[in-house]
Amino acid sequence: MSHDSSQSPPDRRPLIVLSWIWVGLPLAYGLYELVRKATQLFTG
User: Fold this and answer.
1) Residue 30 has pLDDT above 60, yes or no
2) Which bin fits 33, alpha (ψ -120 to 50), beta or left (φ > 0)?
């Protein structure tokens, strides 16, 4: 009875946010390192 299809589905936003953080943090760090090294490469 608690899982009624006419009711709003369980809130999955925290899980989605956690998934984006889990993927996004290493990705952002990798991009940061790439930009930092590229900057060093081109500026000497």
Assistant:
1) yes
2) alpha
DSSP of the chain: --S-TTSPPP--HHHHHHHHHHHHHHHHHHHHHHHHHHHHHHH-
pTM equals: 0.58
Q: Is 38 left (phi over 0), alpha (psi -120 to 50) or beta?
A: alpha
What are the Cα distances from residue 25, in Å, to 21, 29, 36, 43? 6, 6, 16, 27
